[in-house]
Amino acid sequence: MKIAKLAVDNSFSKKYKGIGTFMIKYAKRFAWACNTTYCAARFLTVDADIEHDKGVLTFYEKNGFIPNAELFNKNRKTISMRKDLYK
Ligand SMILES: CC(C)(COP(=O)(O)OP(=O)(O)OC[C@H]1O[C@@H](n2cnc3c(N)ncnc32)[C@H](O)[C@@H]1OP(=O)(O)O)[C@@H](O)C(=O)NCCC(=O)NCCS
């Protein structure tokens, strides 16, 4: 199951910590819930957008994502990452 867009409004991220992490946990719960009904997801995936902020890699790593091995990726604006839903 792929995370396509993930962002916290500046006004909230200054005021509250942990909203991004909360949304990752919510996505994980959503994928688990799907697994009990109509799909079979093993990983959360994301193309981490490093073009504007390389720090997003740290954010995803802190949330249990690891980089995927990529044979071809000339577009280094993103890094493909995954999180095992059962680890
Ligand atoms: C990336 C984003 C969603 C993170 O949301 P957030 O609510 O700030 O993240 P959290 O407060 O849950 O942070 C969790 C941890 O990651 C770290 N972290 C978060 N964003 C980071 C960044 N840009 N660079 C480095 N570390 C970061 C936090 O310091 C925190 O570390 P700690 O647990 O050691 O204190 C948010 O910064 C954002 O909307 N960025 C702009 C859009 C974007 O780049 N989205 C990702 C596209 S793939």
**Class computed from helices, strands and strand pairing:** alpha+beta
- State the helical fraction: 25-40%
Bound molecules: coenzyme A
- Through-space gap between termini: 16 Å
- Total helix count? 3
Task: Describe the 3D structure.
The structure is a single chain. The chain is an alpha+beta fold. The chain has a single domain, classed as 3-Layer(aba) Sandwich (Aminopeptidase), CATH 3.40.630.30. Helix content is about 35%, strand content about 20%. It has 3 helices and 4 strands, in the order E-H-H-E-H-E-E. It has helices at about 10-15, 20-35, 55-60; strands spanning about 1-5, 45-50, 65, 80-85. Strands 1-2-4-3 form a 4-stranded mixed beta sheet. The structure holds coenzyme A. Coenzyme A (COA) binds near residues 17, 21 and 53.
Q: What's the topology here?
A:
Blueprint: E1 2-3, H1 10-15, H2 19-35, E2 43-49, H3 56-62, E3 66-67, E4 78-84
Parallel strand pairs: 1-2
Antiparallel strand pairs: 2-4, 3-4
The protein binds coenzyme A.
Residues 6-8, 13, 17-21, 46, 48-49, 53, 55-56, 58-59, 62 line the site of coenzyme A.
